[in-house]
Amino acid sequence: MENINSKFIKAVETLEKLGKISSRKDIADKLNYKPSTLTDILKGRSAINTASLQNFCKMYNINLYWLFYGEGEMFNDDTPEKNSKEIDTKIQIDTPQQRLRGIGI
Fold it and tell me: Which residues of the chain have pLDDT under 50?
């Protein structure tokens, strides 16, 4: 099972391939990271924090549920209301222990 950091890296690489980001420095700036900090995260030397992950998902239309649980598509569809309802329902069903195990902690 992929962990959150590896899915974050996969999302960044996909955004680059799709031309949706101009540079990794642009991502670092938007997440309030130094470029070297983002490089450490992308090389697996550091972990990205939850608040930054949430901001990243909002900025680039990444499915937060995919990022945390590995289910669904990487990108949200064009209906944010549908995605937020789906995430809320699934989170209510899981216990905190199940969620932590699901993200590799």
Answer: 79-93
Predicted pLDDT at 36: 96
Dump pLDDT digits (tens) for 64-89.
999 989 889 999 985 444 444 444 44
Q: Which two tokens stand for residue 71?
A: 């289910």
Give me 58's structure tokens. Answer: 């909002």
Please report, for the chain, how many H helices and E strands are present, in that order.
7, 0
CATH of 4-102, one of 1.10.1740.10, 3.40.640.10, 1.10.260.40, 3.30.870.10: 1.10.260.40
Rg (CA), the chain: 14
Give the three-state DSSP class for 72.
coil
Length of the chain counted residue by residue? 105
Residue with tokens 């899981």: 94
